[in-house]
Please model this.
Amino acid sequence: MFLAHRPGMTTKAIETPEDAQGAAWLDLLDPTEQELAESLCGQKLPTLDDLNAIESSSRISVRKGVAFLSSPLLKRNGSEYITSPVGFVLTDERLFTIRFLPYQAFETVAQLVSDHPAMPTAATAGAQPHVVLHAGEILVALIETIVDRLADILETMGNLLDALSHDIFRPSQQGPQMRTTASRQRDLLQRVGSAGSFCSRMRDTLLGMERIALFLSESRKTASAAPAPGFSLSSRQISTTQQPLTETDARAAIYTLSGAQRARITTVSRDLSSLDAYVSQAQDKVEFLLDATLGFINIDQNGVMKVLTVVSFIGVAPTLIAGIYGMNFKDMPELSWSFGYWYSLSLMAATIVLPLIWFWRKGWLGGIK
Model:
């Protein structure tokens, strides 16, 4: 799917080059129109394999004045979290985005672009400055919205970790006991494993976004090419006293950002650093919960081993007595004794009861500790 986003207009699918006229943001979702997009961009666009590359030089590069940026991006898929690469190609006139999954952040920014004031028509162009929604402004808004979305996901995961911690240390005693201890422990381990996988995927996403933010924050642009108050595209509250960006300024600017946009990217970098610290804390908590879960499993296993030890021990003495009196020797006085049978049974019962009392007093059977 190849989409064009224009200020003041709804999103439109691109089928011919004419459909992309006036659009500062061209969005490829699970792209199939790669050749058309490359003809509009003037350069070869990265493929899925290119976006999946892990080298820093592959994720951030500049070719012929065009910035190629990519990063893995976390997405919730039902009860699980997955990552898929996204690519940003920033030219002097347009922003190309390449993604293979729908993301709420992109939908939010697309709505912001649609709500943005449309460009003046030819009849009114001479009466007022030509306000241009530059591609860099859209990129900054996308990054801000993505970071805000990641923060919301982290808050949700923090609540899930708190619930997991409660289930591990204070399991509920209410409701029917339909689940065995083994199934409960298996469920806890699966939840801990999912939390660990989430933290790993989130860290990869934050690292990729931090690289992009660092690259953009180090860019330079003339101060005259700054966004106008009221025309900044952002899901955040932005205040500025700069003048509107004219069409001349926009065409003179390359992929680098204006001072106001770089200031916003600097704020995003600080947000990413705080989120990274939060993820580190969450990872430490996941490791602690994993150790606690394994510790409880070891305790339960020790309890099982105690029971098996008791069962095996109390069976030794009765077996020994039965074996002795089961020997068919001629001179065994108990064989002709009228109470010999009851004597052997009583002796077996005593060798069972006395060890049980002793184990109970030791606390192995839940008695005196």
About this structure: The CA atoms of residues 139 and 165 lie 39 Å apart. The beta strands are 2-5, 12-13, 25-29, 60-63, 66-77, 80-90, 95-99. The longest strand covers residues 66-77. Residues 259-325 form the longest helix (67 residues).
